[in-house]
Design goal:
single chain, about 220 residues, mainly alpha, 7 helices, 2 strands, about 75% helix, rod-shaped, repeat, Ankyrin_rpt
């Protein structure tokens, strides 16, 4: 037993002596947050947080299947909305163009219709004037022929037609109306033909004193031919 203890003590001494001959092991150093190196006895256990953050920032996190599906649906829905909006605007533009075309056509048709109506009114007015002129010429012819033949009753009938025509045309019986009526009456009594002959001259030429007296009583000019 004593020999064993002696050998163990000798081995410990040899190991101690050999360890003294080895070069010293440098202490562990770490860089502090202030930029200084710390010795090994103050060093903290290695921190992997920075490495994890750097790894996460350099490699973006991939979307999950649910997120990808939601994003795909959202994009598809936006495309559908965009197509619907485009279709709506195109429809509105088409309706606007059709409305403008229709309004232009209606305006053109209305303009043509107004022009046609105006032309029709002018045509009727001209026809009415021509009709009145023909009737006036016929009355004058009847007046001259009746005077030449001495037909007093026919001359009175012609003068009555003139008065009735004034009434039909709205000529009143006031002072102004009387002036207009008298002018129309005298125009018929002293009417002329293409040669300038008047009813009084025709009655004189035909030798009808009663017709001459009737014409003078109705304002005939004795100095007429």
């Amino acid at each position: 037993m004593a020999n064993r203890h002696h050998r163990a003590a000798a081995l410990i001494q040899d190991a101690t002596r050999d360890s003294r001959l080895l070069p010293p092991i440098p202490a562990l150093q770490r860089v502090t947050s202030s930029g200084h190196q710390a010795d090994g006895k103050d060093a903290a256990p290695p921190d992997n947080t920075f490495k994890l953050q750097e790894s996460r920032s350099s490699h973006p996190t991939e979307l999950s299947c649910e997120a990808k599906a939601a994003l795909t649906l959202q994009c598809a829905f936006r495309r559908i909305l965009a197509r619907r909006e485009k279709k709506r605007r195109l429809k509105e533009q088409q309706e606007y163009n059709e409305l403008m075309d229709r309004l232009q056509r209606e305006a053109f048709v209305a303009l043509v219709k107004r022009e046609q109506e105006e032309a029709e009114r002018e045509r009727k007015k001209e026809e009415e004037e021509k009709r009145k002129q023909r009737e006036e010429q016929q009355r004058r012819k009847r007046m001259l022929e009746a005077a030449f033949e001495g037909d007093v009753e026919e001359m009175k009938a012609v003068l009555k037609e003139v008065a009735d025509l004034d009434t039909k045309n709205g000529v009143g019986t006031d002072e102004n109306g009387k002036v207009v009526r008298l002018q129309h009456h005298l125009n018929m009594v002293d009417c002329t033909d293409a040669n300038g002959n008047t009813p009084l001259s025709e009655a004189s030429g035909g030798g009808h004193p009663e017709a001459i007296r009737m014409l003078i009583e109705n304002g005939g000019n004795p100095n007429s031919r």
